[in-house]
Amino acid sequence: MEDSELLRYSRHILLPEIDLSGQEKLLAAHVAIIGMGGLGSPVALYLASSGIGRLSLVDFDSVDLSNLQRQIIHDTSQLGNTKVSSAATRLADLNPGTQVDTYPEKLSDAEIDTLIRGVDAVVDCTDNFAIRLKINQACVTHQVALISGAAIRLEGQIMVYDPNIDNAPCYACLYQNTEELDLNCATTGVAAPLVGIIGSMQAMETLKVLLSFGEPVTGTLLIFDAASSQWQRFRVTRRTDCPACGGAN
């Protein structure tokens, strides 16, 4: 590690949970962030600033004026540009040592599978349940950690799938019939700081999974109610009939 990196990451290196060896692991890590909106913004900013060596950003959308209320990685000068190119520009200024790969298109199932096969962790910041289930299936198939987050109105949630933990439930163990759950902030609204809270938590959980410290929320659905500032934890068990990770699969 060069002197400039020792200085940049000095506050991490002081932590016994990370230390020099842990920071070197982060510098060698490759993380995919799928969705560069309200959740993906703080995730990308904090993972890049933390020293993740390579980030793959996936989003087919472009920056719109309505995004700027909560998608803090973008700014007014980027209106009309793709979200991944906007994010890449910001991340290059924040930490030029992080390699950023961009995917400004809607990936096919095969392309999602190929991408996830080559990373150390996936952070799901999408707002579509069908896509979430496809991402989850690829993570289960290739035994890649999945850090999933969601936020709508005044409520957010986080769940982690870690294949290194025996009998860890996946996202599909919790959500299977999702037709009634496809909500989005364009029609229901979302408080701006809420996505910052949940996205920051996703970034923290990603570091914990990559470095194997603390207690990631694997097998736990963590729900935050912004109106009351309360967190609730619900245990999730692996389903033997789960179409993604069940015994038959």
Task: Please name the defining characteristics of this protein.
Rossmann fold; alpha/beta; single chain; globular; about 250 residues; about 40% helix
What is the C-level CATH assignment?
A: Alpha Beta
Mass-distribution shape: globular
Distance linking N and C termini: 42 Å
Main structural class: alpha/beta
Q: pLDDT under 50 segments (min length 5)?
A: none
Succession of helices and strands: HHHEHEHEHEHEEHHHEE
β-strand percent reads 15-25%
**Helical run tally:** 10
Q: What does it look like?
A:
The protein has 249 residues and is an alpha/beta fold. The chain has one domain (3-235): NAD(P)-binding Rossmann-like Domain (Rossmann fold). Helices cover 38% and strands 18% of the residues. It has helices at residues 3-8, 10-13, 19-28, 40-50, 83-94, 109-117, 129-142, 171-174, 185-188, 192-211; strands spanning 30-34, 54-58, 99-103, 121-124, 145-152, 155-161, 220-225, 230-235. Strand 1, helix 4 and strand 2 form a beta-alpha-beta unit. Helix 4 (40-50) packs parallel to helix 5 and helix 4 (40-50) packs across helix 10.
